[in-house]
Amino acid sequence: MPTAGGSAGAVENLLPLALSRPHDAIASARSLLAGAPPAVEASIAHQAWGIGLRQLGDVTTAVRQLRTALRLAERSGRSEREADVLATLGATLGRAGRSREGLARLDRAVDLSRGALTGRVLLRRADVLLVLGRHREALDDLRSAITRLRRSGDQVWEARSRNYRGFIQLALGGTKRADADFAVAEKLYAATGQEFEYAEARQNRGLVAYARGDLPTALRCLDEAGRRFAAVGVVWPDLAIDRCGVLLAAGLSTEALAEMDQAVAAEGGTATKRGELLFAAATAALAAGDPAAARERAERARRLFSAQRREWWSVRSSMVLLEARYQSGERGERLLRRVSAVAGRLDALGASEASAAHLLAGRLALDVGRARAADRQLELAGRHSKDAPPIARSAAWLGKALRADARGDVRGMLSACGRGLDALDEHRLAMGATELRALATGHGAELAELALRDALRRDDPRRLLSWGERWRATALGVPPVRPPDDDQLAGELAALRDVVRRLDASPDPSLEKERRRLEKAVRDRALRTASGPRSSTAGAWRLDVGELVEALGETVLVELVGVGGVLYAVVVRDGRITKHEVGPLAAAALEIERSRFRLRRLAHARPHTPSGHLGPSLDVLGARLGDAILGSAQDLLGDRPVVMVPPGRLQALPWGLVPALVDRPVNVVPSAAVWLRARRVRPPADRRVVLVLGPGLSAGRAEVMQLAKQYPDATVLADGDATAEKVLRALDGAWIAHIAAHGTFRADSPLFSSLRLDDGPLTVYDFERLRRAPYRMVLSSCDSGLAKPVGADELLGLSSSLIPLGAAGILASVVPVNDPATAPLMLATHENLQAGQSLAAAFAAARVGTRGDPVADAAGRSFVALGA
């Protein structure tokens, strides 16, 4: 948000310095006053001192300095001096929450001023109007101010006026006009050496990028602004608020809430800014699924805004309170009346939250059976401008879809769902970072659910398959976009490996703190340096059902779809598509956890432990699992190869336990479209093989050495040579890669899931630096196949990161395995690969040899073949 400041007077550099370098300005003002200057110069010194204090957050003391400056200005008898100080005092009072007194001072200043000075006063009155949310009145003042200041050649104040006008245009949805004003302001600030305000212009350019959906650019601009603010010794609360908005748009709600709570705790006595920080924190808490925290913060913000007579902010805070009540489970006529009233007030104020308020009112009206009220509210929610950001357009299309659904207009509902998902495709594809893409899909879950319910009502399995694919694993549709040879990212990853390696050797609180710092640096770098492809590629990964049927041939595809807490299986076999209701999703998740628990126990069981001491047999568990996951769909599998497409929350499934899937090739993929793409991947011409042995694996050594005999020309990296950079260089574009290394899955931050190498962990961020993943990859370590469900059926993890990078097939475990028992299985799998079998077929044939050994059998059932 912009700031208002003072003008140049007799001491011509002191007032501009107050905004550019406030600490220096205060020191210069004190030095000047020590010499007992005349009233005019003393007035300027106190005014500069006050502006500097305001910039540093000490508004109470700033007001005292400005009142002294005003008394000296009145004593000087110069009306222009009095008008200038009145304007600065009025703007500062407005920022302190005393808007009525502030506007009265500013109105008096307008009356006293002439020419360019009137332009500077109008700017500061616009500042208070902006704080109050009176955007149209502020725009009128700024248009007049810019005209006057441009005619007078006052570049600094013209830049400030354009900065303000750009901010208001942005608040009203005019991104092009806003960016034009910010660009001019930036040039003028640079030309006149206004360092603080140049930082502010960079911050506002970030807001334009955010409004356009370009989140990586927005984060980079905000980061640069933060560095420039720090360089002039200023902590700027608006920067935290803007970063919160960008993080929320990216789906990073937990990070946004933590940042805002930290900013609230650090904020000093600026009442206006404290309210805005609390409002942003409440919004973040709501997005993070913590309605109690949202209500507490929003209520504190609302009280502050009401006391400051800031209606625009107060009404928006009331809306967050009502959304928190809804998120807590409250429903009914009373809440509907409150939300409808607040939605109307937001409309009148031109607030961007109006559409979301109408959407909530529409939902509440549907809940209580008020069809006409719901229709009207959802009609209002469906309004949007053509240049609105993609997420705002998607929310509007959701309103249209809900309205059409309530009216029984199936065609209109499906069209709105498609258009809403298209808007989110545009939003998502502007981001190059895998994490941002995956998280962004969560916005489309309800749109996809509406279409899936319609497919169920029609009993149309083809539609169920198409819509199930429409918003599934789309983040894996294209590889992450990184700038070539990002040396800074590579350096931070290397430093992180070194710290983790030392931590493993000797736990140390200081090293743990450094690990957290480096992880944040790596994550921030990845989020900010990636930029996505243009939206013209949207839809390039959409599933063509006809192509899928033709590609399957004798293979059977089973796609599992969850709708309303119920699991359905869509089976594609011999060109026929059928639907089967399996049962509750919760029951399926429970059987998966039971199976994983039993496999973990077997992996660590002592030799010759009676199987009865370990619970039900694997066959019994497998039969239960098959019934809970596949139900009657099992009867259609026959003895054919199978492609399994589970939803994200069921991805950690040991498919080898299911009796109907034993002794056959089974490929597991996050979407049917991903399987089709994996099939189209062609193997490299040079058939290069890479074998990697990480530290601390005695069984892995025998495994890798035996494989080296099977592949005499292989590149072998072990015994100190298995370092991240060497391994990445060798893996890039390889035909087959086999890595025997301890694996770690990080549920808290899945892109830091890793394989342990000689110089530390090789993370997902490292793998994303590959130009092309190995064609086939075997990860014989624990948990290497796990991924975390995020967004709408998206997966983030070690193995999933290799799919968009060109890997056709990956063999990995979804539970911990017994390393000695795994080695024979891996050797047999590679023998079958050399004989020309696919990865899934090679693994299935290798598993046959584990019969009779409970531990080896458990290890075989713990792996899955991902891809094609």
From TrEMBL:
Q: In terms of domain of life, where is this protein from? A: Bacteria
Query: What InterPro entries does this protein's entry cite?
Result: CHAT_dom, TPR-like_helical_dom_sf, TPR_rpt
- Any idea where the CHAT domain is? 636-852
Q: Which Pfam families match?
A: CHAT (PF12770)
Which SUPFAM superfamilies would you find in this protein's record?
TPR-like
SMART domains referenced in this protein's UniProt entry, alphabetically:
TPR
Q: What is this protein called?
A: CHAT domain-containing protein
